[in-house]
Amino acid sequence: MAQNLKFEELPIEKLRWRCPVEKLDLKTSDDVEPCDWIIGQDRAVKAIKLGLDIKSIGYNIFVTGFVGTGRMTAIKHLLEKLKKKDSIPDDKCYVNNFKNPDLPRAICLPAGEGKLFRKDMENLMLSLKKNIPSVFESEAYKEKRKEFIKESEEGQKAILAEFEKEVKKESFALVQIQIGPYVKPDIQPVIEGKPISLAKLEKQVKEGNFPKEKFTSLQTRYEALAKLMEDVFKEGKEIVKELEKALDALDKEVIVPLIRELIKEIKAKYENEKVQTYLDEVEESLIDNLDRFKPTKEKAPEGPLAGFPFVKPEDEFLEYRVNVVVDNSETKTVPIIIETNPTYKNLFGTIERVADRGGMWRTDFTRIKAGSYLKANGGYLVLNALDLLIEPGSWQALKRALKYGRVEIGAYDPFYLLGTSAMKPEPIETKVDVVLIGTSYIYHLLYHLDEDFKKIFKVKADFDSVMPKDEQNIHQYACFIKKICDEDKLLPFDKSGVGGVVEFGVRVAGSQKKLSTRFTIIADLIREASYWATNADSKVVKHQHVEKAIEEWIKRVNLVEDKIQEMIEDGTIMIDSEGEVSGQINGLSVYDMGEYAFGKPTRITARTSMGRAGVINIEREADLSGRTHNKGVLILGGYLRGKYAQDKPLTVSASICFEQSYSGVEGDSASSTEVYAILSSLSGLPLKQDVAVTGSINQKGEIQPIGGVNEKIEGFYHVCKAFGLTGTQGVMIPHQNVKDLMLKNEVVQAVKQGKFHIYPVKTIDQGIEILTGVKAGERKEDGTFEEGSVNFLVDKQLRQYAEDLKRFGAEEARKEEKS
C-alpha cells in the first residue's frame, strides 16, 4: 500500500557547524593575549558592578548560574579592581570594662593603631611592674613608712601604758587568755599577788572562801575597767586606721605621679574618645590597686590542691591588656574575604573558654575572637549559599548583621555542652558587602520563603551558560585557551585545535548559534587535549587531539551507555532497526547521568479497541509517569479529538506503553511518537522500524522542539550501526531543532554517504507519511479524507468503532428489557 513519496532530508552542512579556522587571525594560541577578563557575562557583570558600587543598605549580591560559568572568577576579578578605590578599614579592639567586666568595650582605631595601642598598654604595665616595686623598695620610702609606723606604735603604746597604769591602780592585771587557737586580752583582779578570774572568785564565794562584799566590789570595778579597755582598743584601731590612711597617702604621693605621667603620654597619642575614657578608668583602677605592685612572697596552694606544683597565673594584670581582634596594620587594600567554611564560629567569631585546674570553665575579654564577617568590615565577604544555609545559626546571624549594621560576638553553643557565658561584648558597627554564590533554585526558595532576603539581597547577578557565537567570542575562546596553556604550562593550540575547542563549546551549548560559557568543562578539555598531544609527540595541539580527548573522556564515563548497548545488541532490550510493524515505533530517550548524557531508542507500542476509555497511559497507571509526560498524553488525546471526533464520538480505548521501562518516564518529547503508534494501530498501516522518532506535539498536531537532539540521533545511529546500516535508517526530529544539531563526525559521514538519514518534521501528517510511506490525506469539503490515505483509514476505523459501540449498546439494552 506504500506510495512513492518524497521526503525532505537535511543537507550535510546543517548537521554540524564547522569552525571557520581559516578566518582565525592566528597560527597558534601563542599569537593571542591571555584572557584576564570575564567572557560572555555582560548582564551578570553589570549587576555585580551595580551592587558593589551602591553603598546603601541591602545592596548585597546573590550570584546564580551553573557551576563552571566563571562566577567566582568574575567576582574576584571585579573585586580586585574595586578594592583599590576604597580606604583601609579600622582596627577593632576589645578592652576591659572596669565597671562591668561582663560587658567588654569595643574600640575602633585607624588601621595600624590597634597594634600600637596594645603595645603601649603592655609597655605601661611593664614600666609600672618595674618602677613601682623599686619605689616601694627605696630607702626614702622605707624611712617615711617606718616613721609613720613608729609614730603609730608609740601612740598605741602610750594609750596601753596609761590603761595598764589604771588597771594596776585598781588592783587588776592585764592578761592574755587562750581560747582555742586564738588569744584574747582580758583583765583579772590580783589576789595575794596573783591574777585570778572572776569565775574562780565567784566559786570561792559560793564555797564561803571569799567575802561576797569584796567580790561585788571587784565585779563593779571589773565592769568599769572592761568598758575602759574597750575604749582603749577602739582608740587603738583608730590609730591603726590612721596609719593605713597615712601609708596609703604615702603610696599615692610617690606612685600616682608616675602612673599619671605614663598614662598622659599614651593619651597624647590617641584622640579617640573611647580610648581617653578607657585610660581614665585604667588610671583609677591602678591607683586603687597599688598593693598589687608590692613584692609579696608566693604561697603554695593549700587544701585539695596542696599536692600540685604551684603555677603562677599567666598574667596577673590581664584586665589592662588590649585584645586586637582585627589588625589591619599590614592591610594595603580593602579586605576581600572568601569564606569556604561558613560555620557560625568562622563567620562571627567566638568567645573561647578554658578549664582551670579546678575543672571550672572561665573566660575573659582577651579570649574574644573575630570571624570572617568582622575581618571583612569595610570590604567584601564572598560565601557559598548552600554551605552557609546548612551551617546551624549562620544564616540567621548573617541576616541580623546585614539588617542592623553591627555584629555581636558570642559563643555559639546551641546544645549547652559547655555551659553559657555571661560575657556580652559590646556590638561593633560594620559595613560589609556580601556576595552569595548559589543556584537559581536556592535564590527563589529564599526569595519566596524568607521575608528578610529580598530586603538584604537586592541585586541578582545571573550567569548565563551560553553566549552568542560570533567572531569576537570565538576570539575570546582562543584567548581563554592561551590563558589555560600559560597557567598550566601546556602545549599551544594550532588553528585546528582552537577550532576543535570552539566546536566543543557549541556542542555543550546545545545550539549552533551559541557558545558555552561553562569554562570549567572547556578548561578540562584544553588540559586533556594537551596531554594527548604530548603523548603523540606533537609540538602543538591539533583538532585530532581535541577529538581524542573528547573520545577518551566519553570512554571514562559511559559505562552505563555501553551496558545498555550490549543489552540491545544481545536482544535483552528488544529494538528493531529493520522491517515494519503495526502499532510499534522506536522512540528516543536521553539518559542524563550528571556528568554525561546519552540517547538510546525505546520501543513504544499502542493497542486500540472499541471503548470509551480514551488514551490509557500505562506508565501513569503503574505510577511510572512524570507530570510532563502525563501532560503530553493528555495533549495527544486532545489532538485525536480535534482531528477525528468532530462528526462522531471518539469511542476508542487506546493503551500506549514504553516497553521494558521500569524506572519511570518523564518529558513530553515522545508525545508525537505515541500519536504515530496509535494512528498505525487504528489504520492498520505498519510503521517503519528503521526510523526513530522524537518530538512533542500540541493539540493542533504541530511538532514542537525537544532537548538532547544530538544525543538521541547518535544513540539510534549506534544501535543501527551495531545491527548493520541498511541505507534506509534515520531519525525524525522537530524542524526547530535543526539549528541545535552538532553531530559527531561519524554520524555526519554516514549521512553524507547515504547510510543514515535525518528528517526535519513540522506536523504529524508529515511524520506519518515518512513512517508509513502512505499519504496522510487532507480533509475534503464534505468532511471526509482522501480515500486510501492514513487519515481516511483512521477515520474509517473510528467511525466503525462508534457504530459498533452504538449497536452493542442497543443490544445490551434489549437484553436488559427482556430480563
Can you summarize the main beta sheet?
7 strands, mixed
Number of helical regions: 25
Which percent band covers the strand fraction?
Answer: 15-25%
**What is the β-strand count?**
30
Question: What key phrases describe this protein's structure?
Answer:
819 residues, alpha/beta, 7-stranded mixed sheet, 5-stranded parallel sheet, 25 helices, 30 strands, 16% strand
Overview in brief:
This protein is an alpha/beta fold and 819 residues long. It is built from 25 helices and 30 strands.
How is this fold's topology laid out?
Elements: H1 42-53, E1 61-64, H2 71-82, E2 91-95, E3 105-109, H3 113-137, H4 139-169, E4 172-179, E5 182-191, E6 194-195, H5 198-207, H6 212-269, H7 273-288, E7 322-326, E8 336-339, H8 344-348, E9 350-351, E10 354-355, E11 361-362, E12 368-369, H9 372-375, E13 380-384, H10 385-390, H11 394-404, E14 406-407, E15 428-429, E16 433-437, H12 440-449, H13 453-456, E17 459-462, E18 466-468, H14 471-488, H15 495-509, E19 514-516, H16 519-535, H17 543-557, H18 559-569, E20 580-581, E21 584-592, E22 597-610, E23 614-617, H19 618-621, H20 627-644, E24 652-658, H21 671-683, E25 687-688, E26 691-693, E27 696-697, E28 703-704, H22 709-723, E29 730-734, H23 745-752, E30 757-761, H24 764-772, H25 790-818
Parallel strand pairs: 1-16, 1-17, 8-13, 13-16, 21-26, 23-24, 26-29, 29-30
Antiparallel strand pairs: 2-3, 2-7, 4-5, 5-6, 9-12, 10-11, 14-15, 18-19, 20-25, 21-22, 22-24, 27-28
